[in-house]
């Protein structure tokens, strides 16, 4: 058994070390300008706003934009050279979702709903000036009509319901009470409320505009669900009264169900999806994380003024005739977000938007957006300059990592208790450590994509230091109180919550040990970690005084008794 376990653990460690730390996108030679958004939509940064930052004369082609470690293509009203006072940078900004949370889970498959973030809906964008090129753009592209291609009859669309009714704690051991692991476990995350014994949860997906002609694949229903009680159970899935699947999902197991069905079932344009808990035992519980219907849809956008869709690669190009789009008699813009192209739709036939797409060798993510004045466009006006600290520099490397918050660095009488703590730990009396201070907001930006209270930022940073620093990291001290993500989410809108949540912890129930563990299943801390749950600087000072007094007493040698 030992011969088997050793190579297994080594392989697990190698896999963990090969994972990203989320800071790979940063160029430390560039200045970034950070801003936040909390809702998906069309955004613009005007030249006057850029001028207030002292970058109003920057050539348009030098700007680049980042979100969650990925560069986002932007449209600039002038393609090259400085912008005028009426010019702007335009982009499609998506709110934060649960995709960055996936590495938190012990097993990536345990995440059942990545539509919603566990920490916050607010996402951080980083605007940079990069004269070196390779800055993604949405380039104005001719919409050449008439097209020699026939109009595409359908596209594959996903209509979904992504539940956000409760934060489900996930897998539990029932030992007189429900006991949960601090690891992000199976079934943990946003779900529906519980479905009790015999309860049916209906979900009506309407305005589908299905394509029922020849050549389209059969539609597919996808349901992610989890058990929440120590009972055997089955559940069934119906669409418009027809049972499509019956599944066994005992105890705290989870299921990701997919079932193909006939397009005739949704030919009327609506799907009443029912999930029923078939358990007959009293007080059973299960939850649904998400329900998705994947089907062939006509190019009818149902009166929307913005619509996202995808098309497969096509080396001949595509011709689209889109009905049911609210364009207000102004040609809407189609963004090919994959290939970086911007088309203006033809609306000479008022009931249709006509667009001829250029050939593409890859699958495309597309977005049609109204240009009518009634369509909301949000101005980005508040940007914060960020010059990232290069923690790989020798002067920033330590073996005693103190992670703290600026609010704890201003004590009574002009003191800085966090700095005092560092100085003590660096002294001979405090252990002669190479102690360094790292501010948590900087770690959120560098190792957590700027997502506030992101525990992954701390774990990534600590893993990165262990892999990067020339001397082994021996200790991690978290200076500041933290909340688990369930508590923080519940009170996120309360300004006082920030005074109780300086340094996030990991999971629910909370565990700081998991912050110093590697991703994966073992959960073993790789370095000692401690926390001082202070909510102000003076509390740090009081605790430091006690530590010094205690360690002085421990160092004192009493005379031997005779």
Descriptive notes:
By secondary structure, this protein is α+β, with helices and mostly antiparallel strands. The protein folds into four domains: 27-136, no CATH class; 155-297, Jelly Rolls, CATH 2.60.120; 312-371; 391-555, Gingipain r, domain 1 (Rossmann fold), CATH 3.40.50.10390. Helix content is 14%, strand content 31%. A five-stranded antiparallel sheet has the order 4-3-7-1-30, with no helix packed on it. Strands 8-26-25-28-23 form a five-stranded mixed sheet, with no helix packed on it. Helix 6 links the parallel strand 33 (475-479) and strand 34. The chain starts with a helix and ends in a 7-residue tail after the last helix. Residues 1-18 have low confidence and may be disordered.
Largest sheet: spatial strand order:
4-3-7-1-30
Number of helices: 7
The tally of strands reads 34
CATH domain class of the largest domain: Alpha Beta
Helix percent reads 10-25%
Proportion of residues in β-strands: 25-35%
């Amino acid at each position: 058994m030992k011969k088997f376990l050793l190579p297994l653990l080594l392989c697990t460690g190698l896999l963990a070390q090969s994972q990203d730390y989320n800071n790979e996108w940063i160029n430390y030679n560039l200045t970034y300008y950070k801003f936040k958004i909390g809702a998906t939509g069309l955004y613009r940064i005007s030249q006057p706003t850029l001028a207030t930052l002292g970058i109003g004369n920057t050539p348009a082609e030098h700007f680049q934009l980042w979100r969650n470690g990925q560069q986002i293509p932007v449209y600039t009203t002038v393609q090259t050279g400085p912008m005028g006072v009426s010019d702007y940078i335009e982009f499609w900004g998506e709110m934060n979702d649960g995709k960055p949370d996936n590495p938190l889970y012990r097993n990536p498959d345990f995440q059942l709903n990545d539509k919603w973030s566990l920490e916050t809906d607010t996402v951080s964008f980083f605007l940079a000036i990069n004269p070196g090129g390779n800055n993604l753009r949405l380039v104005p592209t001719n919409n050449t009509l008439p097209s020699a291609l026939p109009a595409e009859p359908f596209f594959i669309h996903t209509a979904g319901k992504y539940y956000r009714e409760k934060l489900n704690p996930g897998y539990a051991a029932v030992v007189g009470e429900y006991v949960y692991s601090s690891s992000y476990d199976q079934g943990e995350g946003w779900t529906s409320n519980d479905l009790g014994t015999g309860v049916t949860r209906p979900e009506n997906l309407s305005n589908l505009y299905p394509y029922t002609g020849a050549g389209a694949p059969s539609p597919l229903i996808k349901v992610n669900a989890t058990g929440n009680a120590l009972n055997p159970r089955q559940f069934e899935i119906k669409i418009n009264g027809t049972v499509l699947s019956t599944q066994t999902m005992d105890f705290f197991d989870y299921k990701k169900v997919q079932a193909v069905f006939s397009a005739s079932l949704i030919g009327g344009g609506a799907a009443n999806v029912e999930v029923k808990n078939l358990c007959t035992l009293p007080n059973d519980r299960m939850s649904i994380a998400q329900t998705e219907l994947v089907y062939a849809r006509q190019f009818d956008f149902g009166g929307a003024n913005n619509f996202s869709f995808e098309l497969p690669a096509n080396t001949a190009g595509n011709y689209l005739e889109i009905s049911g789009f609210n364009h207000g008699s102004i040609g809407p813009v189609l963004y090919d977000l994959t290939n970086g192209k911007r088309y203006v739709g033809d609306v000479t036939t008022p009931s249709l938007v006509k667009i001829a797409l250029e050939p593409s060798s890859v699958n495309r993510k597309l977005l049609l957006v109204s240009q009518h004045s009634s369509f909301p466009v949000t101005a980005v006006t508040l940007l914060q300059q960020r010059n990232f600290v290069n923690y790989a520099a020798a002067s920033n490397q330590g073996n005693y990592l103190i992670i703290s918050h600026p609010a704890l660095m201003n004590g009574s009488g002009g003191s800085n208790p966090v700095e005092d703590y560092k100085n003590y730990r660096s002294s001979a009396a405090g252990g002669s450590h190479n102690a360094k201070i790292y501010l948590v907001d900087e770690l959120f930006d560098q190792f957590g994509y700027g997502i506030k209270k992101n525990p992954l930022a701390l774990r990534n940073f600590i893993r990165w230091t262990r892999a990067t620093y020339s001397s082994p990291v021996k200790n991690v001290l978290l200076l500041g109180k933290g909340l688990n993500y369930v508590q923080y989410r519940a009170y996120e809108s309360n300004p006082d919550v920030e005074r109780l949540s300086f340094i996030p912890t990991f999971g629910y129930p909370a565990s700081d040990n998991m912050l110093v563990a590697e991703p994966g299943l073992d959960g073993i801390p790789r370095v000692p970690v401690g926390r001082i749950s202070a909510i102000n600087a003076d509390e740090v000072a009081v605790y430091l005084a006690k530590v010094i007094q205690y360690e002085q007493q421990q160092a004192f040698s009493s005379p031997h008794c005779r």
